[in-house]
Amino acid sequence: MPSTASSVTASFDLLLRGGRVICPASGVDGIRDVAIRNGKIAAVAPDILPTSAKEVVDVTGKLVLPGLIDTHAHVYQYVSGRFGMNPDMVGVQSGVTTLVDQGGPSCMTLPGFRHFIAEPSASRVYAFLSAYLVGGLEGHYYPQLYSPDGVDIDATVKAATANLDIVRGIKAHAEIGGFARWGIRVIEMAAEIGKRADLPVYVHFGQLWGLPESGANGEDADTILTRVIPLLREGDVLAHPFTRHPGGFVNREGEVHPVIQAALDRGLKVDVGHGSHFSYRLAKKAIAAGIIPTTLGADIHGYNTHVPAPAGTPDEHEDEENHPFAGQAKFSLVQAMSSMMALGLSLEQVVPMVTSNPAKMLGRSAEIGALKVGMDADVSVLSEKKGRFILKDNEQNEVIAERLLQPAFCLRAGARFDAVAPILPQAVAA
Fold it and tell me: Which residue in 77, 155, 212, 223 has its CB near the most CB atoms, within 10 A?
């Protein structure tokens, strides 16, 4: 505890001292101290006097980053069945300060999301509004709810534009189960919503629903990307580049679709959307082909961790063996950073994927994603273990990570939260 004399003269509430500060938005990468006053960043500089702060935390040897931003969360707890996680468990208790719920709320359920999730959470919560009226209800059991008849363009545009403080984009699904039922019409409608609301559209690729009894109805999973991408605009987001399911970035011949690079060249973005369908095997192919993700969403939900099934949820998925959400491999946003590094990307490449790049995607670079004086003190402090660690996906592929990142704690507007979430994976030595 500081002495009375020092606390009287202290100009800062908290000082994070001696860590490696990496802030891509500010161009800072080096040993710095970070001072906080009244929940805001007050100074970032070498050797700030410890006596200038009421509390000093020694973070020597640790990474001090702008508060991490998870661009793919499922946190409409209770409303979206087993998908919906507790926002603070995947947020501040996992070292993550900002979450983007992907498609949980719709235009109909957004008021509940605001009142019960976004406003009470210690984590900062945004949403990409579902293009479908049912939002993120357990829709993989009931694909018919996601047909064109379940989309109201006008209502969704109205809800999005009236709630721009939390709605920062639109979520849609481009996958073979939907295409076999309805063709491309739903995606055309989602693209229209994005244009009219002037918000990015985040498009899920990779199989989501099983095929109808009538089969693929002439649709080919390998053509979906080439048909969807022309509908999208600069800033729209292609999700799940490393999915193990048909209809992703890698075709049946094992080649990366050539249209991807052309899409990136005209300003489309790529979000990892890690999830249980993440494949190291396909990630290696895509990265080798030059596909470097813009952002790194975790896509944690109650199927790839464990959330008890609410009453009313079907006991079994009709295609349990190929259930797209099932998975045993534990992961987190921070572990997904380690995965990217194990795949050959540098720490300096990965940090923008969880800080400055998602802040741009959300149109919130002035508020989040940087350690700049005057911004909310959203800070993530990570430890870095060196050695040999096994990371595994749900295909049982393994990679060896020589550097393993783990969350230590974070500050959300200056308030400290330790990384105590029970869903965080443990280090497994090779």
Answer: 77
